[in-house]
Amino acid sequence: MKKLGIVVTLIIFTGAVWGFLRTKSDDTNIEKLVLTGSSTVAPLAAEIGKRFESLHTNVRVDVQTGGSSRGVSDARTGLADIGMVSRALKDDEKGLHSFTIALDGISIILNKANPVQSLNKQQIIDIYTGKTLNWKAVGGNDAPITVVNKAEGRSTLELFLHYFGLKNTDVKPQVVIGDNQQGIKTVVGNPDAIGYVSVGTAEYEASQGAAIKLLPLDGIAASIENVRNRSFPLSRPLNLVTRAEPVGLAKAFIEFAGSPQVNDLIEAQYFVPVPR
Amino acid sequence: MTKNALATGLIWLSAILVSGVFVWLLSDILIHGLPRLSWMFFAEAPKNAGRSGGIGPIIVSTVLILLVAMVTAAPIGLATAVLLSEFARYDSVFGRLVRRSLDVLAGVPSIVFGLFGNAFFCIYLGLGFSILSGGLTLACMVLPILIRTAEEGLQATPNDYRLAAAALGMSRSAALVHLLLPSAAPALVAGLMLGIGRAIAETAALIFTSGYVDRMPDSLFDSGRALSVHIYDLSMNVAGGDASAYSSALVLILLLLIINSIAMGLAKHWMHRSVVTV
Amino acid sequence: MSLSRADKQLAALLRGCALLSAAIVLLILLFLVKESWPVLRHVALTRFVTDTSWHPVDGLYKLTPMLSATLYSTLGALLLATPLGIASALFSRYYAPPFLAGCYRRLIELLAGIPSVVYGFWGLTTLAPLIGRLHPPGVSLLTGILVLTLMILPTVALTADAALAAVPVAYLRGAAALGLSRWGLISGVALPAARSGITAGIMLAAGRAIGETMAVLMVAGNVVQQPHSLFDSVRTLTANIALEMAYATGDHRAALFVSGLALMSTVLVLVGTAEVLSRERHHD
What we know:
The structure holds 3 protein chains of 3 kinds.
Chain A: H1 2-22, E1 31-37, H2 42-55, E2 59-65, H3 68-77, E3 82-85, E4 97-111, H4 121-129, E5 146-150, H5 155-164, E6 175-177, H6 180-189, E7 193-198, H7 199-207, E8 212-215, H8 224-228, E9 235-242, H9 248-257, H10 263-268, E10 272-273
Parallel strand pairs in A: 1-2, 1-3, 5-6, 5-7
Antiparallel strand pairs in A: 3-9, 4-7, 4-8, 4-9, 4-10
Chain B: H1 2-33, H2 39-43, E1 46-47, E2 52-53, H3 56-87, H4 93-106, H5 110-124, H6 131-156, H7 159-167, H8 172-183, H9 185-201, H10 204-207, H11 227-236, H12 242-272
Antiparallel strand pairs in B: 1-2
Helix pairs in contact in B: 1-12, 3-6, 3-9, 4-6, 5-6, 6-9, 7-8, 9-12, 11-12
Chain C: H1 5-40, H2 47-50, E1 54-55, E2 60-61, H3 64-95, H4 98-111, H5 116-134, H6 141-165, H7 169-177, H8 182-193, H9 195-211, H10 214-219, H11 237-245, H12 250-277
Antiparallel strand pairs in C: 1-2
Helix pairs in contact in C: 1-12, 3-4, 3-6, 3-9, 4-6, 5-6, 6-9, 7-8, 11-12
C-alpha cells in the first residue's frame, strides 16, 4: 500500500515537472528583450520594462544584474540585447552606441550629529588623503575621522577622484564600501564618518529620518533639483548601450526609456531625468 | 564534583548566550517586518521596484529553485555517502580523494559558485539565466554538506547491524534500506536541514544564475528571483527598500519553518519503518 | 565480503555518483585557472605577494593582506563557534528538558537558513555601531569574526547534535552504571565517541567561514591592509571578488580570479593538512 503511495506521488511529481518544462515551447511568438549590467540601473530598467510590457503585447523584458562591466561585455558579445552601464563609456568602448536615460549626482555626506556644516575642496582632499586626521582641524569635535571610500573601478569613485584631482593610491580610507545603501548605513552608524553616495538616495534617506546630512559642494547645495538644473558639479550618466545601431524591439525600448513617459519611474528611483 | 557543576553552568550559559543573540536578531526582523505582512503580500507581484506590492512570484521561484537543488543533490549525495561508508575501504585512495575534494568544495566561496554556475550552466550548457541553472548551482554547493553528514551518520551505526544482516543472508542493499539508513536518520535529517538552510540562504550564487527577474516563472527555464536575492536588492540597492526587505526576511523564515517541519515529518515517518528499535 | 550481483551494480552506480561529486571541484578549479589566465600570462606570481599594494587599476596586485584577513577571520570564527556549537549540542542532548531542547534545536535549524545578507545587514546596522563606540570605525575584523561565528554556529551545533545522537545508548548506560557524573559521561564517553562526526562538522563550518562573501563584505570594513588589531578594518579575499567584480574589466577581472585561486589553494593546503593529521581508525 505504501509502495503504491510512493509510486503515485512520484508520477504526479514527474508529471508536474514535465508540464512545467513543456510550457517553454509554447511561447514561440513572444519577443524577449534581455538587459544585463549595472545593479544601479537594474531596478529602474526593470520598472521601465514592466511599463513597456503593459503597453505592448507578447513582449518580455528580462533584466539581469552583474555590474557595468558585464553590461558592456554582454552587449558586445550579444549575450544581452542591451547593456546597462552606470558611467560614461571608456575610450576602448567607444565602438558601442550609448543612450543616457538618467543622471545621478554624487553628494558628500556626514553624520547628522557632526557639527561641521560645510567643507571646501582642499579640506576634503586633505581628509581623504589622510593629511587631516581629526575633526577638530576643520571645526568639529575632537574625534578621529572615519573616511569612507568606494571600491576600486566604480564610476562614483572615478568621478570623485577626477573632480578632486586625486589618484586612488592617494586615498587613505578607514572603510571601503560597495553600494550606496552600504555607504549610508555606515555613515549612519558612525558619528565621525564622512563618505559620498548618490544624491537622490541620500536626499531620500535623509527625508525619511536617517541620521545623515548632505554637504554642499563649492557652495552649491547637494540636491536633485540642482543636478536637474546642472548647477551641481558632480554627476554621472546612467546609460543603455548596444553593439550596433538598435533596431526593432531594442530600438522601441530605448526610445521609450528616453521619453517623458518614464520620468515618474526615474524620479521614483531618486535619479534625475535627462532634460529634453 | 565541582567540575560537573562548572560544566553544567558553562553549558547553560552558552545556551543562554546563543539563544539570546539569535532571539535579538529574530525579534529585530519580526518588529520591522510584521507591519507590511498581509495576505496580499504573499500573493501579489512586486511593484515599484519591490517597495510596494508583494512577493508572490518570488516565493514561487524560491520554492522551485530549492526543489531543483534538493531533488538533484539528495540522491547523488546519498549515493556518494553510501559508497564512502559501505562500499569503499575507509583508507582507500578513492575514498580519501572523494572525501577531500568534498572538503575543498565546501570551502569554495559563494561568489565563485555564482560565476562558475554562470559560465558552466548558463553559458556552456546553454540554460541561460534560469531556475534550473540556479538550482543546479545550489546543488553543487549543498552536496558536501549532505554527503559529509550522511556519511558520518552511516559510519556511526554499530557494526553489529551489518554483521547480523550478513548472517541473515540479506543483500547489502536490503541491509541499507531496512537497517542502516533508518538508524542513520537523525544524521540524514540534520544534513537535510543544513542543506536546505544553506540553499535558501544563498545570495551571491543565485544572482548570477537564476537571475533578477521578478515575474512569475512559467517554466523551469525562466529566470526567477529568489527571496534572498530580493532581500539583497531591497536592502542594498533600492532606496527605501528596507521595510520590504524586513518583511521578505520574515517570510523567508516562515517558509523555512514550514519546509523544516515537512522534512522532519517525513524523516520521522521513515524512522518508524526501521526494523530495529533504537 | 563478496557482493551479490545486485550489490555489484549498486556499487558501480554509487562509484559513478561519487566521481561526479569529486569532478565538480575539478571543474571549478579549471574555471578559475581559465579566467585568471589573461593576467597570469604577463604578471609573475611573485608579484601577487611583493607588490606594494592592491590597486589593480594601476597594475598593483598585492594579495597577502587579504589572505591574512581571510585566515584571521576564519580562525577567529572557528575559535568562537566550536565551543559554543558543541555546548549547544550538549545542551539540547543532555542538559535541557525535552521541550526546551526541541525549541532550542528548532531555533538553531532556523538560523542555518537566514541569508548572509540579513546577517550582514544586522551586523552593519546594529553590531557595528556598538563596536564603533568601543573603537572606531566599527566595521572591523572583530565585527566580521562575530558575524561569521553566528553564521557557522548552526553547522557545528547541528552536526555535533547528530553525532551525539548516534552514540550507542549502551555506552551511556554503561557509563551511568559505573557512576560517572554527567560531565564525566560527556567528556569521557559521548564526546570521544562522537569525535569523528563533530570534526566533520567543524570542517564544514570552516569551509562556510572561508567562503562567506556577503556578510563579511558588509561588516568587515573592506580596507586592504594587514590587520594589526581586532578593530582594524580588513578585506577578505571573497569580499574582494564581490566588491570589485561588478566593475572590473580585463586584467583587473582576471586578477580577481587569481585571488579566487589563492583562496582555493589555501583551502587545499588546509584540507591536506587535516588529512595528514587525521589518522582515525574506522571499522571496515
